[in-house]
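#lab-general

N.A. 3:47 PM
ok so I finally got the sequence cleaned up, no stray characters, all 65 residues accounted for. can someone with queue access submit it? mine expired

B.Y. 3:52 PM
send it over

N.A. 3:53 PM
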Amino acid sequence: MICPGSSEVIVDDGFSPERIHITAIRRLSPDDLDELLIRFGKKEAEFEQAPATEEIEGAEVEELD
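B.Y. 4:20 PM
back already:
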């Protein structure tokens, strides 16, 4: 339950009500929603395949005696 006068959320999980102070509210983007669902285990993460490695030319190395 949200208390509009005190900017608090009251969470009653059966043991005792807990008050949580609301500091900010914002609209979630679809990406934000997916991230939250993945973080709390409600959705499986979609793994992106790593890009193929590129061959990079290096500098020549000269050994000193």
